[in-house]
Amino acid sequence: MGSEGLRAFAAIPVFQFLREQGLGPDLLVGAGGGAFIAALAGAGFDLAQVEEAFRAMGDKRLFTELDPAAALFLNQGQTPRVNAETGLADSARLRGVYARVFRGLQLENLSTRTVLTATDVRTGESVALDQGSLAEAVYAAGNPFPLTPPLVRGEQWLADGSYTQPLPTLEAARRGMDVVVAVYAQDDFASLPAGLGESYLNVIRSFRKSMLRAQMFQTLQSSGEELVVVLARPRKRAGLEAGEDFSSILEAGTKALERMRGSILDAVAAKSRRVSAEPLLQEPDPPGARAGHPSGD
Q1: Which one of the record's GO molecular function terms can you name (predicted)?
Q2: Do residues 198 and 245 lie in contact, with contact meaning Cβ atoms separated by under 8 Å?
């Protein structure tokens, strides 16, 4: 799962469909906004709890309250130095939301195996998180550094996983998944950007679009797995802070699922046929036995 912000909730109808079909996932992988959804699903939250989490993330103050230290940082002269606490927005509210939602849960103890991917902004490498505090992992995998500070883990400065894997199909392939259902909620380009912010987002979306295509192709080439991509398009352009209507996002996910429902079932059936066609392993002959000369009397 991957997307920008609240649009990631469009994946919820896909989870509901899989459970109805008895196809509960063996592994959940999320990056960016998708990390939050993967965590909610991995923890077994019901729809009411998911909507409550959605409402909590709609608080505009999460990304608009300037960190007092940021003003000092920006006034350091020509060459201000970035450190591990650097971020334009104060991250305390955002971290607090994650802490309240996940209440001390640990990644390794979730009901469904869950991996969240972050980016080490010091090296540009993707980092897979599968142990430790779920709240901290969700923050690490989704925080839009440099808007908010990175999560520091040893020498790593962890930020939004979509910087390196917008849709982490490669991570699913590395972990041996033979059928991957990838859900991505697209955000439209601003055809007439209103300012520098929208212009910058257009550039970021261009990079993500190219990476999506390349990494999905690489996933298929390297693993030979069944890959089904569900692309949702919520009707309004909105970021994480916009408080977009929950029902409209679910509706977009439902429409995307309707287009791909048959493909998901076909992929599972194709994998089942391949498995049933594989020859059964024969038991080895007992020691000392030869063709035509069975051991014993």
Answers
A1: hydrolase activity
A2: no
